[in-house]
Fold this sequence. Notes:
single chain; about 550 residues; mainly beta; Neuraminidase; five-stranded antiparallel sheet; globular; binds MU-OXO-diiron; binds calcium ion; transmembrane
Amino acid sequence: STTTAARAQAAGFAFTPIGIFTDHDIHVPEGYQWKPLVRWGDALFSEAEGAYSPETGVPVAMSDKVFGENTDGMETFEHDGHVLLTINSEYVNPKINLPAASEGKPQTADEVMLLKNMQGVTVLEIAPQDGTWGVVVDSAYNRRITHETQMTMDGPAAGSDLVKTNADPEGMSPKGTMNNCGSGRTLWGTYLTCEENFNGYFGMVTEREQTPAEKRYGIGGESNYLYEKFDPRYDISAEPNEPHRHGWVTEIDPADPESTPVKHTALGRFKHENAEMVQAADGRIVVYMGDDERGEFIYRYVSNGTWAEGEPTDGLLSDGTLYVAKFNDDQSGEWLALTPETTGMSAEEILVFSRMAGSEVGATTMDRPEWIAANPLRAEVYCALTNNSKRGGDAMPVNAANPRETNEYGQIVRWQPEGGDHGADSFAWDLYVMAGNPAVHSDAYAGSQNVTEGNMFNSPDGMAFSSDGMLWIQTDGDDSNEGDFAGQGNNQMLVGNPETGEIARFLTAPNGAEVTGLTWSPDRKVAFVGIQHPGGSWPDGAGKPRSAVIQVWREDGATIG
Ligand code: FEO
Ligand code: CA
Ligand code: CA
Ligand code: CA
């Protein structure tokens, strides 16, 4: 209505917020359009054109020549006049990829290879096509990085006994990246991809007791995917150190298809969501990172060296200190350094078992830290705490930053470093929003003041700032539209104003999908948005559902972020 439009304009939103939807389609505001950019199975190389079948998916021979499954974090780069997208493929759905698999588990080594190839990272070139953007098939930049891609490691844990395997006795040449969830970009124009739920791909063929570290990281038993039955690399009874080679932040140079990705051990090993890089006042590199698990921590890495445009980047992500966050109940906070002195652990152990190091120094248990986004207009950082079914009781008592028991809605915490300096060891924090349902609850579960029946949502997850300083929030929650979630509809993308706290709904996803990953075309006229694990037959209207990156633009050609 006119009133909604006028109110949105007054709050600084350039669009009229939309209502909820429960269908298998995408919805965007009036005056905006969308269409797919690239779907699971779309060819990156002409030899794979037509390889995708709506009935059977992609054959194994073509599985590393197409766009991977379950799109997640992504970034846009420009190189020599070419526009490159780097896009994570987080996880695989065997029932979608393997129509013949019993109980959704692979039965052969070929099926395992197919699934492995559907994860990882895609680098692809895009170019203007029919008034929007399209994939440049056969671009020299196009590349798939999978479980099988040869990598290297740097930082204090590289080459340590903890990361040596039979295949790599030097502990310097890990293979592959997996469960690539959120993303980041370095200030020098490379891509950061973050390994999250890597634990789910390792299993134990010969039963033995789990080590305390395996328990803390959820590694052991039979895996969800049975890779360990067909490839000993995934069998922790044969290769106990292989999981230590996953759970890292990996740097990829999208401009050089021959480059070897680097796993940066200095940034710690946990279920990495994303990696948000900023700079301290003195020029040191700062990376904020969340560990997405109930009761795990928020981390900050600070380099020892400083950097300015044009200077060499050696050592910036391999020589520094890892910190973990303590959120005090008086809304102050501290970064606690993880060192041999503070933890009683060796430098290698601190990095490989960062969770245990964080516990040693008394970090604050959080409600599943997902994406972290830094405000480009001031020194202020936001972290989506998606939800936490285990919050409350003695094992994980509530605290001021995670204030609700059995937190099914989530909240977004933000902090401002002391003196506006990301290198400072203390900060002030507050809750930007507590998600909730004011139609169902009248207590804390109704959410904070900026949550209304018109904009409500649950489980904030993806987040990114647009260049105008607006916070884009993506959700990965309960889309049943029933009970505690009645009136919230499908997962969605909203825009939050950091100044006023106001939040407005911009997009809704097909039922079953989460919205994750957001980047823009270089001219900011098109937003690229990730749609992961859709239901129905989205977006083709028939056949299998296909996770996809979509493009959203304004009919009048104005910028949108
Ligand atoms: Fe892959 Fe925590 O989301
Ligand atoms: Ca996901
Ligand atoms: Ca996520
Ligand atoms: Ca999530």
